[in-house]
């Protein structure tokens, strides 16, 4: 599923004034490609407003998502690499500079996406390479290489 990441679902040096804008920036990559509607991005933000910063899963890394619903058109993954990290109010893992967003049509693909992304993110060297990617192509290749064998 990580191989579903498209180059147009990656942005680097993204400016975000706060965690809401960071989620919206990553989510808009999915909207622009038609993977989700604006409603899905609103649901991702609302989920954090209601449940706190549970999406911040490791130092500097957030995985924004919402429950599968009718605003999801396809399984997809996006990444915004922030120019400057922002606070998500996570005591253990702030500030965040890598904001993944994903959409999943059903519960099974939702869980599979989280699992595969978690496996990728457990490799500190890959995560550091991603943080230092200077181009969208570099970030794309790091994720493709790092997801080999995770399918």
Describe the model.
With 151 residues, the chain is of the alpha/beta class. Helix content is 42%, strand content 21%. It contains five helices and five strands, in the order E-H-H-E-E-E-E-H-H-H. A five-stranded mixed sheet has the order 1-4-5-3-2. A hairpin with a 2-residue loop joins strand 2 (56-58) and strand 3 (61-64). Helix 1 (19-33) runs antiparallel to helix 2 and helix 4 runs antiparallel to helix 5. The radius of gyration is 14 Å and the shape is globular. 36% of the residues are buried. The mean pLDDT is 91.
Topology order in helix (H) and strand (E) letters: EHHEEEEHHH
Query: How widely separated are the two ends?
Result: 7 Å
Tell me the structural class: alpha/beta
Oligomer: single chain
Total helices: the number is: 5
Helix content: 40-55%
Report mean pLDDT, rounded to a whole number. Answer: 91
Task: Count all strands and give the number.
Answer: 5
Strand order of the largest sheet: 1-4-5-3-2
Shape: globular
Q: What kind of sheet is the major sheet?
A: 5 strands, mixed
Low-confidence stretches: none
Radius of gyration from the alpha-carbon trace, in angstroms: 14 Å
SS strand fraction = 15-25%
């Amino acid at each position: 599923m990580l191989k579903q990441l498209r180059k147009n679902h990656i942005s680097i040096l993204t400016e975000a004034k706060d965690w809401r804008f960071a989620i919206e920036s990553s989510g808009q990559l999915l909207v622009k490609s038609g993977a989700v509607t604006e409603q899905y991005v609103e649901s991702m933000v609302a989920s954090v407003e209601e449940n706190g910063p549970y999406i911040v899963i490791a130092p500097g890394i957030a995985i924004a998502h919402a429950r599968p619903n009718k605003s999801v058109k396809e399984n997809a993954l996006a990444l915004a690499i922030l120019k400057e990290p922002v606070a998500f109010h996570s005591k253990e893992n702030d500030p965040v500079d890598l904001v993944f967003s994903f959409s999943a049509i059903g519960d099974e693909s939702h869980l599979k996406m989280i699992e595969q992304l978690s496996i990728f993110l457990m490799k500190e060297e890959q995560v550091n390479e991603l943080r230092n990617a200077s181009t969208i192509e570099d970030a794309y290749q790091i994720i493709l290489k790092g997801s080999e064998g995770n399918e």
